Amino acid sequence: MAPPAPQSQLAARRSKLLRLIAIIILALIVLVGLVVLIIWLVVKPKGLAYDIENGSIHGFSLSDNHLNATFDFVLRAYNPNRKVAIYYDSMQVSVAYDDQTVASNGVQPFFQRHRNVTRLEVQLVAQSLLLSGPVSKDLQRERSSGKVELEVRVKARIRFKVGTWKSKHRTLRVFCLPVVHFSSHKDFGRTKCEIDL
């Protein structure tokens, strides 16, 4: 019997090499998947929760479409995780009415431990802010009713910390729609916020 042609030996070797590479890649995918699953089972990450616990408006005046007002909010940030802490490296809070931003302010960076509630007292000031005609009319109408629905927006750059490992930066966005009373004796209803991470 004649020995196989060199071409068929080459094809057989190439086929074995391709099978070996495919097996190695599949094993790596399974291994990475198992590591991720084990980490997830150990850490058991839970979603963050944000509420606005209190809100008030002071020094409100609106004339010739120019707004002056101070908006005070207590933002409650809850980290329910047992093993995940969070670095808030930067945070910007703004308040909007009818999709027009009326005031914004930054919050000092902070570190939130696991299973921790952090309350942030935020003051946002609108000073001679020019509003569009329709926005000014709507806001004046709501002012007459004694309450106004605002949108509070939070944008933060955060990192997660598990043990000694720290994640890369992620952008956290929080959206809240509190109804704020102009009269301070009215009770403020806690407002749950939506989170985009």
TrEMBL record:
Domain Late embryogenesis abundant protein LEA-2 subgroup: 75-175
Localization (cell): Membrane
Bilayer-spanning residue ranges: 20-43
GO annotation, biological process: defense response to other organism
Topology relative to the membrane: Single-pass membrane protein
Cellular compartments per GO CC: plasma membrane
InterPro entries, per database record: LEA_2 (IPR004864), NDR1-like (IPR044839)
Keyword entries, A-Z: Membrane, Transmembrane, Transmembrane helix
Record's keyword annotation contains Transmembrane helix: yes
Pfam families from the UniProt entry: LEA_2
Protein name: Late embryogenesis abundant protein LEA-2 subgroup domain-containing protein
Organism (species): Vitis rotundifolia (Muscadine grape)
